[in-house]
Structures are given as C-alpha cells and as structure tokens.
Amino acid sequence: MAEPETFRLRVILPEGGIERVTFERRPDSVPQLTSLLRQKLDIPFNFIVQFEDPDFNNQLVNLSKIEEIPNMGTAKLVKTLEHDIGSTSSWASDSGESSSSQTPRRTSAWQQVFPVPIFSHDIEFLLSEANTAKQHGRRLTLTKEQKSKILDGMACAIYEYKAYPSGSEIYKAAEALVLKHPCLEEKGSKNGWDGWKDS
Fold first, then answer.
1. Domains: count for the chain
2. What's the rounded mean pLDDT across residues 92-114?
C-alpha cells in the first residue's frame, strides 16, 4: 500500500498548546522530523519528540524510529534544555526545503558530563534489571534490536547538541552512557565504552 501523499501530526507543545502540522511526506528520520517541526512551529528551544505508543496503552514514549509514529498520530514536544536558541537562524534539512543558512542552529555548549537520555520503557526496564544483576556478577547480552534502540536514543540526544560532534565529544557521550548504565560495559574493552563510541 502506497504511503499517503501527506503526513499529518497532532502536536502537543511544551506550553500546552496543540497544533496540527502537515508535511508533504513522512520525514525520513527522527532528527529530520525534529528539524521540520522546529521550522514549521518556529520553536526557539531544544526538544525531543514523544508519541502515543499503542503497545503501552497510548502512553507517551520517546520516538526513536520515525516508523513508530503513524500518520494522523499524536506527538508531544518535550523541552530538553534551559538554553533558548536563536529563532532567526535555521537548520539545513534533508527534506529538500531550502535554508538561508547551512549552519546547524545549536548554540548550547556541549556538557562536561553528557546527559544520557531516558530510553523507551522496555529499554529502561531492561537496563535497570541488568544494572542490578551486574552487581551479582551476571552480564547483559543485548539483542541487535535492543542495541539499536539505545544507539538511536543516544544519536537523537547528541543531535540536540550538535549535528557534527567531534570524536572526543562522542567519546564523552559513550562514557556517560556506560557510567550511568554499568551493565553496558564491554568485556575486553580498555575502558568499557570504546565499542559504544565506535557504534
């Protein structure tokens, strides 16, 4: 079945307002959706996108893959940083829409300790259980899908700060991930997070 010609969302704003947003087609990724929402709604702050997940009785969870949110679905924007960013500059997007500037609109400094995001409910539960089990010598083995969800969540969080972070900044993000969730420490790795950094 062909994708609908337009892609529409009901968007709940952090201040409580609700907007209906229409795109020419479904965005290709969560970062692109974030960028387009920022442009269309003229949002001057950083945010993450949540959606009503039917697997959890339509409770809101972080959107990690663009395919998860349906056409005519509900998205909620959750403010992530206190620092507002200039609303006059714009992001380059992958949608083909032109931009007067090709410089990503992010002015918040990279944090000394990277703030690891809250993942989807199933991943948070898994990590909580595994962190406890690690204290008793049991190791966590992730499935490919579970690792992908963690990486997608980290990628979205990193993207909120920088579109093109340096190697040392990605290293800091990987370090923060493993320090927050010791169960993700990699066996045989020099410091426990080199593999996460590479991924």
1. 2
2. 47
